[in-house]
Each structure stands twice: as C-alpha cells, then as structure tokens.
Amino acid sequence: MKILGIVIVVLGLIGTFAFGIQAMNRTQSLNIFGNEIVFSSVSWLPITVSIVLLIAGILLLASAQKR
Fold it and tell me: Which domain holds residue 18?
C-alpha cells in the first residue's frame, strides 16, 4: 500500500505541475484604464483530478504509516 501511495502522490504532483503550467500559458490579460482583466480558456478538470490524486495518495500513505 505504501508503494501505491507513493506512485499516486508522484502522479498527482506531475499532473498538477504539468496542467498548472499549461493553464498559465493559456491565460491572457488585458489592461484597461489601469484595471487588469484576465481571460482564461482552461479546462479545470485535469487540474482538479490531479489534486484529488495527490490528496488520495497522501491519505493512502498516512493510513499505511498507521499499520
């Protein structure tokens, strides 16, 4: 269970960073009268799934440590 937890945490970290960088690159901003308006065409589902994997892996590691 500990190895599975580590694999899930690593996959969650890689996915979060990869999709986060992709989201930052797809964001555009426009400055009008001193106010910055941000436009984003990002699908948040992959980032959300990656964060859920990361949390699940951490919980799995924590439960493996108790046993």
Answer: 2-66
